[in-house]
Design goal:
By secondary structure, the protein is an alpha/beta fold. Helices cover 36% and strands 13% of the residues. It is built from 8 helices and 5 strands. A 5-stranded parallel β-sheet has the order 2-1-3-4-5, with helices on both faces. β3, α4 and β4 form a beta-alpha-beta unit. α3 runs parallel beside α4. The chain starts with a strand and ends in a 6-residue tail after the last helix.
Length: 208
């Protein structure tokens, strides 16, 4: 049995565009578990607002780097770690771009590969470049002011960083886009597309 930990933000947690949370079976980690088989365990550890490594002055506990080691110990040993973060890094008050988000993911990779006191092996790593942001709507419009153009560069910086760090890589913008309802979050079809793309990437790399 393999343990796959999905470490992400609201796109992993299962936020419904414009509010609410999808039932478990419509979130992509659950769909991935269905595809891989339930002798494996796919853990959804998404959290709305989570960043790669920035402390959000308006949301407590959203620094991804600060909580990764605890997550790996809590759910360990973890065979595969899927990192899908960076969208929230583009919020206006952080004033950074996708290059800095990719460097944040690199710090998470380093953390995941550090020796631990339990003797757990380092997990295999999958880096998912977040989808491009469309026109943010409603309450998201001010938060993500200027983020549309920045998000176009996720693919480039994340792929370069993933190759350099010998990680599996998936460009989600190549297979899906956010819902037009709010321009950021995924509809149920996009969740399904992401689950299938990750299954194709992982199916031959996870022991039966």
């Amino acid at each position: 049995m393999a343990t796959i930990l999905c470490y992400g933000d609201s796109l992993t947690w299962g936020s419904i565009p414009n509010g609410g949370r999808y039932p478990k079976h419509l979130r992509w980690p659950s769909m991935l578990n269905d595809l891989l088989g339930h002798h494996h365990e796919v853990i959804n550890f998404g959290l709305p607002g989570r960043t790669t490594l920035w402390n959000d002055p308006f949301l407590e506990g959203r620094n991804g780097l600060a909580y990764l080691q605890a997550a790996l110990e809590t759910f360990g040993p973890v065979d595969t770690l899927i990192l899908m973060l960076g969208t929230n890094d583009l919020k206006r008050h952080f004033n950074v771009g996708t290059y800095e988000a990719a460097k944040g993911i690199e710090k998470l990779i380093d953390k995941a590969r550090m020796p631990n006191t339990h003797g757990f092996s380092s997990p295999n790593l999958v880096v998912v470049a977040p989808p491009n942001i469309l026109s943010p709507m409603g309450s998201l419009a001010a938060n993500f002011d200027g983020a549309i153009e920045k998000s176009q560069h996720f693919h480039q910086h994340y792929q370069d960083m993933a190759i350099h760090n010998k990680c599996l890589f998936l460009n989600s913008a190549g297979i899906l886009q956010p819902s037009e309802v709010d321009g950021v979050h995924l509809d149920s079809h996009a969740n399904k597309q992401l689950a299938h793309a990750l299954f194709s990437l992982l199916k031959d790399k996870i022991k039966p």
